[in-house]
Amino acid sequence: MASGLMSSLCRHAGERVPRYTSYPTAPCFTPAVDETHARIWLGALEPGATVSVYLHIPFCRALCWYCGCHTKIPADDLAISRYVETLIAEIDIVVSLAPKPLRVMHLHWGGGTPTIIGPAALDRVMAAIHRAFSLDANAEVAIEIDPRTLTPEMARALGASGFTRASLGVQTFDPVVQNAIHRIQSAEVTETAAGRLRGAGIAALNVDLIYGLPHQTIPSCVATAERVLALDPDRVATFGYAHVPSLKPHQRHLDEAALPGAAARFDQAEAIAETFVAAGYRRIGLDHFAKPGDGLARAFDAGTLRRNFQGYTTDRADALLGFGASAIGRLPQGYIQNTPRIGAYQEAIAQGRLPIQRGVALTLEDRLRATVIERLMCDLAVDLESAAAMHHLPDFRFAREREALAALAAEGIVRISGSRITVPEAMRPIVRVVAAVFDASRPAIAAHAPAV
Q1: DSSP run (H or E) holding 378
Q2: Across residues 72-81, what is the average pLDDT?
Q3: Of 30, 57, 162, 301, whose CB is crowded by the most CB atoms within 10 A?
């Protein structure tokens, strides 16, 4: 790579910009969107609409110090049982407000550690899902797994309940890094979990990795990636560690002096990427890798790849319904988010209320910007005129954004051909910087964005 392009990469790699799993992004949500909005929006769904369902289980047996998720250590198993009862009650309330039937295309369990609820509770929640929704015959049913706590009984329960995909949290196999982040997990334990899942009939496996952790190096990242290849996963996601101790106090346990800088983080991410690409995986979007025959790779080739709170997805449903403390839903009119406080969540459901804490109603301009950002994040390219026409805003010219794009083009970060914007392959690692140009909540754009 030419020195000028490398200089641009290094200069922008350390910029703090959102991952754009939604637009507007979650920090833009406000209490102005509340339970009343959610009830109206749910009632406005079309009968027979396709939906995705997300279930959040906010508990883990131990807290990893790098974690940025909404999770906690339960006081006892009774706390988990009470939470499961509340989750089922929430499903019943939401479905009572929406037209029937709603057809589920994707069902995703996240957390926390979803399997902490145990096989019996899993069966109860899945039974509630089947009562409430029509589960499509080809629906993807996925769950996030902590390999350290997956029992043979739970693996069998997942298979019996029809799960089709599991995501194994690995992060790193480097023992020095594992000790620093308070997560000890051997490759052997992970291999055992993968074997149990496949033995239970769950053929599709994902692996999650993190770079930018304390004491992490390029050799340790590559060694972890090579060990992951031995698991033969269908997909791999690689995430950069976000150090926000002001928001996640447990991150203060980490040695900040041992955190790699922006250039080192970039090199680690690229070393991991090169390892998987060399092994035949397709590079998808910003941070995912997939086997050529996987649905994610096929969606990329077809131009139908999407992005949501779980990352890159093939999900094309009309709405996303989020259940559980902190869960986010997406309805045609906007986003809604449950309170992350478990006590407040349970109190609301006990009173027959939706536990909505905040959200955002989408404007026409929001929808246009969301499309532009999503296509950049998924395809590394977008046609601005086509996007504007699709949203019936043919006169929306993005004048301010074009000025910013021209500056990026001068650095080789984007190519501009009429209304088409393309991010060169070499600039893939900083595609978020290009997407951020269209984020009207960022000061440089907000001050000049036209009202629509």
Answers
A1: helix 364-379
A2: 95
A3: 57
